[in-house]
Amino acid sequence: MDTEFVRERTYFPQLALVQIVIDDDIALIDAAKPEVAALLKPMLEDPGILKIMHSCSEDLQAFKAGCRSVPSPVFDTQIAAALCGLGAGLSYLKLVEQLCGVTLEKGETRSDWLQRPLTESQRHYAADDVRFLMPIYAQLQERLAALGREAWLQADCARASAAAAEERPDANPHLSIRSNQPLDAEAQIRLRRLLLWRDARAIERDKPKRWIIDNDAAFALARAPIARIEDLDAILSRYPKSPKSARQHLFALLEKPIDAEERRIPLAGEPDAAQKARLKALQQAVAAKAAELGVPDGLLCSRKHLEYLLDTGEWPPVLAGWRRELLAGSFAPILATA
Questions:
Q1: Is 130 exposed, middle or buried (0-12, 13-18, 19+ CB in 10 A)?
Q2: pTM score, two decimals?
Q3: pLDDT digits (tens, 9 = 90+) for 17-47
Q4: What's the CA gap between 193 and 174, in Å, rounded?
Q5: What sign has the CA pseudo-torsion 237, 242, 246, 249?
Q6: Both 18 and 157 in a single domain?
Q7: How far apart are CA 286 and CA 301, in angstroms?
Q8: Whether residue 81 is found in the same domain as residue 97
Q9: For strand 74-76 and strand 51-53, is the pairing parallel, antiparallel, or unpaired?
Q10: pLDDT confidence band for 269 (50 / 70 / 90)
């Protein structure tokens, strides 16, 4: 399976096309038709049908938005390839070339998939996106079985489907903006307020978050306390696409006193020398284990998850299961010094 969707002017992806291959038959399904979602839903949710997809995280979101359903169980060929030691983040084109010896064209990557009728070139491109998934799956499944890593892939794919189905907004979006590190605690709290408001407004209006307020404008508003609405207007005037119609609401949002709950939120900051040393030691442990397994470091454990582990003392959910089993022993002496 694969999808084509459009997300340039909306918060939620607009599902335009669903490609399905069964045996030697390829179906291109017009997902813009209202009756299609109900027809696809039973197959998407059938636990007895394995859905083979490539790099499926955005496709899962598209299915959730377009069909109110998330495919499960899923076999993600990109993750499977990485677990087999073929490389990190391989594109479908690279994987087809590597495993099937076929070079595909990229021509319609930026195509308008909501237009009707589709062009012959679009139809050919869309069909190619699923044409080789079955032979790729067969090869990867055999390799995973030989390595004893089938359960690893099943766990990762199940977590991806669950995350798409849950669709929970980030409670601390300020942590993902790297440029906020120089901000003091109160400025980070103000930034978090702005970003939470932005997320809620983007969802409500189904508009891209950057259309509500971009990161630079939010950062400028949060940097220092704003005592007068004229000061807020002066900042907004430097950003032509800033939400001037929401000026009163933004002023009230920034002016509100900080409460005790907000003072307990996690904050971004520059780690001290000891914390940097521990992070480096954890990264070296990850690299050593990844080299032993023949998998990419980032697939095994990312820097972000190591930082979370050091900051909170808790293993993040993504590291539960097989990753924790592999890493806990080498992490233990490093974490003991924290």
A1: buried
A2: 0.91
A3: 999 998 889 999 999 999 999 999 999 999 9
A4: 9
A5: negative
A6: yes
A7: 7
A8: yes
A9: parallel
A10: confident
Phi, psi of 62 (to 5 degrees): -65, -40
**How far is residue 233 from each of residues 48, 224, 240, 248, measured CA to CA in Å?**
57, 14, 11, 10
Please state, in angstroms and rounded to a whole number, the distance separating the CA atoms of residues 221 and 242. 11
Query: Rounded CA gap, 126 and 59, in Å?
Result: 14
Q: Which domain holds residue 76?
A: 2-166
The rounded distance, in Å, linking the Cα atoms of 177 and 275 is 20
- Alpha helices per DSSP H over the chain: 36-45, 57-67, 77-83, 92-100, 120-131, 133-147, 150-166, 185-205, 209-212, 215-222, 229-236, 247-255, 273-293, 297-300, 303-312, 322-335
Mean pLDDT of the chain: 94
Flag the least confident range among 165-179, 181-195, 219-233, 280-294.
165-179
pLDDT digits (tens, 9 = 90+) for 90-103: 999 999 999 999 99
> Which of 245, 264, 283 lies at the terminal end of a domain, its last residue?
264
Average pLDDT over residues 185-206: 96
What is the distance between the alpha carbons of residues 87 and 30, in angstroms, rounded to a whole number? 34
